[in-house]
C-alpha cells in the first residue's frame, strides 16, 4: 500500500538526512568530550567525592547516551531501507498506511499509532535492564 507522494517521501528523507547529521555531530561531541580536560576534571571530582560509584555512573550515562544515539541511527537506516523497498509508510503489523502526520513527527515509525500502542503494551518491559 503506497499512500505517500514522492514529494512527501522527499520531505521525510530530508528530515532523516538532517537528523543523521545531528546525531553524528552529537556522537562526535560526546566522544571528544571524553578526552576534554574539563570532562576529566569532573570525572575526577566525582570519584574523589564518592569513590568510584559516581565515576562509573558518569561513564554509564555517557555510554547510554551514545548507545541511544547509535540505536536511532540504526532506526534511520532501517527507515531508509523501507523507503528503498517501497515499504516505508506502511505499518509493519497491520499493513495499513501510516499517516503522513505521524511520519512527519516521527519519521522512523514503522507502525501506525494503534499497532504501536498494542506493541508498547505487549513489549513494555522488553530490553529493560534489571538490577
Q: What are its keywords?
A:
131 residues, mainly alpha, Four Helix Bundle (Hemerythrin (Met), subunit A), 0% strand, flat
Give the secondary structure arrangement, pairings included.
Elements: H1 6-33, H2 37-50, H3 52-85, H4 100-105, H5 113-122
Notes on the structure:
The chain is an all-alpha fold and about 130 residues long. It has one domain (about 5-120): Four Helix Bundle (Hemerythrin (Met), subunit A) (Up-down Bundle). The chain has helices at about 5-35, 35-50, 50-85, 100-105, 115-120. α1 (about 5-35) packs antiparallel against α3.
Nutshell version of this structure?
By secondary structure, the chain is mainly alpha-helical. 70% of the residues lie in helices and 0% in strands. The chain has helices at 6-33, 37-50, 52-85, 100-105, 113-122.
Give the helix proportion (percent range): over 70%
Task: Give the domain tally.
Answer: 1
The coarse overall form would be flat
Report the biggest beta sheet as strand number plus sense, adding barrel if it closes: none
Helical stretch tally: 5
Q: What is the CATH T-level topology?
A: Four Helix Bundle (Hemerythrin (Met), subunit A)
Radius of gyration (CA) equals: 19 Å
| % residues in beta strands | under 5%
Average pLDDT over all residues: 83
| Helix/strand order, N-terminal first | HHHHH
Beta strands, count: 0
* Uncertain segments: none
- CATH class group: Mainly Alpha
End-to-end separation in angstroms reads: 44 Å
Return the structural class: mainly alpha
Question: For the record, what is the CATH homologous superfamily label?
Answer: DksA, coiled-coil domain
Going by CATH, the architecture would be Up-down Bundle
Amino acid at each position: 500500500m503506497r499512500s505517500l507522494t514522492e514529494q512527501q517521501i522527499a520531505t521525510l528523507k530530508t528530515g532523516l538526512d538532517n537528523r543523521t547529521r545531528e546525531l553524528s555531530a552529537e556522537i562526535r561531541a560526546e566522544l571528544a568530550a571524553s578526552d576534554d580536560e574539563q570532562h576529566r576534571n569532573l570525572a575526577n571530582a566525582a570519584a574523589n567525592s564518592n569513590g568510584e560509584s559516581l565515576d562509573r555512573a558518569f561513564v554509564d550515562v555517557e555510554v547510554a547516551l551514545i548507545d541511544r544515539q547509535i540505536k536511532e541511527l540504526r532506526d534511520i537506516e532501517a527507515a531508509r531501507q523501507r523507503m528503498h523497498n517501497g515499504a516505508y509508510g506502511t505499518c509493519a503489523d497491520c499493513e495499513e498506511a501510516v499517516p503522513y502526520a505521524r511520519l512527519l513527527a516521527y519519521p522512523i515509525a514503522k507502525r501506525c499509532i494503534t499497532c504501536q500502542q498494542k506493541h508498547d503494551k505487549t513489549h513494555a518491559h522488553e530490553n529493560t535492564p534489571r538490577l
